[in-house]
Amino acid sequence: MEENSYFAFAERDYQFFSRVREAGFSGEALAALGQNICERYLKHIVDIHAEPGDEPGTLKKESVLRTHSLHRLIRYLKEELALEIPAQTEKILKRIDIFSIATTEPGDDSFIPSEEDIEDAWEAVLQTRRFVGNVIRAMERT
Questions:
Q1: 3-class DSSP assignment, residue 135
Q2: Where are the domains of the chain?
Q3: Any alpha helices (H) in 67-114, and if so which ranges?
Q4: pLDDT at residue 39 is higher than 60
Q5: CB 3.0-4.6 Å disulfide test: which of 1, 35, 46, 70 passes with 97?
Q6: 15-to-10, 21, 70, 100, 114 alpha-carbon distances in Å
């Protein structure tokens, strides 16, 4: 896999998150990290496999690659690439969607993530990684 791809960045952070967990550490930043990892895994599919046939489609692809919203990425994958995202994966992705902003910056919607939030972020990473791996393998066969 290319060193400077969404997938490579996601994998490096996945390895970091995994090592932190194995060492028994935790921390608020892990909730945001989990959301960011999932975002990059999903963006990898868009970046590599979305091939718009016209200018509006290209603009839509470029826009979704700039988003930090897992909801928007999910919608794009389903509507533009006709991918089926497992229900549990979609549900947990939507649950952690706000973590990258709400857990890293003060504001009306900010909060300190709980251990449960961090566990949800980790589970989302595992499920998203599995889903993206399956999509990559399926697209390589076609």
A1: helix
A2: 6-110+125-141
A3: 70-79, 87-96, 99-102
A4: yes
A5: 70
A6: 9, 10, 21, 18, 22
